[in-house]
Amino acid sequence: MAKTKYISFECPYCHRLAKLEYIGLATEKTNETSAQRAWYRCARCKHSVLIAVADVESRKKSASTAIVRDNCTPYSKEKKFTIGQEIYHEEWDDVGRIVRKDKTSNGVQTIVVAFEKSGEKKLIENLALEEAE
Ligand SMILES: [Zn+2]
């Protein structure tokens, strides 16, 4: 199972809902496991932020349906994506989260995206551009 590497969280430095990259658990001595905290790096201001793990979990639940378009990667069939990544499909004007990855019988890599408006869709990824010889 792939771990979620990014979370959507309000950054205490730039005060905006930003994409935070998971760095690792904070190695501080504490007797309470519920007080465990983890380091994240803000994609906007690049600050390292210490966030309580319990806080992240509760935020994940409440924000699981809301995708912030500003944090989305524009979809392109030449790009390579990861599960859990949020993308924006310009043609459909829709945002979605990648739920799984697949490969067709002829070796084409695909991503399955749960779009907010369009529902679940399969898209091509990592398509090598064929060069005319
Ligand atoms: Zn920030």
Commentary on this structure:
There is one protein chain. The protein has 133 residues and is mainly beta. It folds into two domains: 6-62; 69-124, no CATH class. It has one helix and nine strands; from the N terminus they run ββββαβββββ. The strands form two sheets. It has a five-stranded mixed β-sheet, with no helix packed on it. A four-stranded antiparallel β-sheet has the order 1-2-3-4, covered by helices on one side. The protein starts with 5 loop residues before the first strand and ends in a 9-residue tail after the last strand. The model has no long low-confidence stretch (mean pLDDT 86). Bound molecules: zinc ion. Residues 11, 13-14, 18, 42, 44-45, 47 line the site of zinc ion (ZN).
What characterizes the major β-sheet? Answer: 5 strands, mixed
Strand order of the largest sheet: 5-6-7-8-9
Radius of gyration: 17 Å
Overall spatial form: elongated
Tally of domains:
2
Pairing-aware structural class of the strands and helices?
Answer: mainly beta
Distance between the ends: 41 Å
Residue share in helix? under 10%
Oligomer description: single chain
List SSEs in N-to-C order. Answer: EEEEHEEEEE
Give the amount of beta strand, in percent: 35-45%
How many β-strands, per DSSP? 9
Helix count equals: 1
How much is the average pLDDT?
86
* Small molecules bound in the structure, each named once: zinc ion
- Low-confidence blocks of residues: none
Observed structural traits:
binds zinc ion; five-stranded mixed β-sheet
List strands and helices in order, with pairings.
Elements: E1 6-10, E2 17-25, E3 37-42, E4 48-52, H1 53-62, E5 73-74, E6 86-89, E7 94-103, E8 109-115, E9 119-124
Parallel strand pairs: 5-6
Antiparallel strand pairs: 1-2, 2-3, 3-4, 6-7, 7-8, 8-9
The structure holds zinc ion.
